[in-house]
Amino acid sequence: xxxxCVGVRGSWRVCLDREGYVVxxxxxxxxxxxxxxxxxxxxxxxxxxxxKCAHPLPRRWNKCLAHxxxxxxxxxxxxxxxYYTQRVQEQLKWLGLHQNLLxxxxxxxxxxRRAFQVLAASMALILKAKVYEIEPKDIDIITFVPKHxxxxxxxxxxxxxxxxxxxxxxxxxxxxxxxxxxxxxKTQPLSLAGRSIQERYQKSYQVYKLQxxxxxxxxxxxxxxxxxxxxxxxxxNVIARLLKQAGAKNVYLLVAGRAxxxxxxKEILEEYGDNPEFQEY
Length: 281
Known about the structure:
With 281 residues, this protein is an alpha/beta fold. It is built from 8 helices and 13 strands.
């Protein structure tokens, strides 16, 4: 694997190294920094992962339990790395599990806009490096998961309101030199936390709708849908179905983090016998 990088700004960049780590690098006059954000999903553990939902898989599993094939409308999910949810960290801490730096950035983006820069660069890197065998030439247009105005995040530093998915999509579109379009809107606030899979899909179908111009914009197009994380997959799959009903040729979900699935990750850790995310330099 070659060493591939995407610039963030100035001497700051993110790279995919030869071991499959997405790393953050800074080379200034007075100091140099190199920190691992995450291990890219296709290089995590045994290198086996689900092509639909992007969760790493145990070596002996032939079926992914982290998603339901019958509910999947996305053609693929592309994630920089695993997003370690607090619940899974607590459940698996006895196996030595601890979160990666990518998770810290994703959590920070929920409070501060500035965290989007390194995440967006990492997401663009995943396509430029063809980590999932999908590259920029396979994408025609980019869109994002919308928020209702009452759900917008508020930056704790300057009180500005923002949608983290839109911030990421804008920057990814700039890196990949692709057109960014706004074709989905959300009719009302909706939290999926604590709901069953079936209820998540049912509620999502009720609140996500196509903009009036959507069919004209996306017909026969290969669409890259951007969000910060994939958890159950309900939001991405509901939007993918809407886009395909309007004529989209393909819909790929690009996220910074793939949220951890307890049973799957537990099996990987037990098989691997160590933490597959972190090895010494």
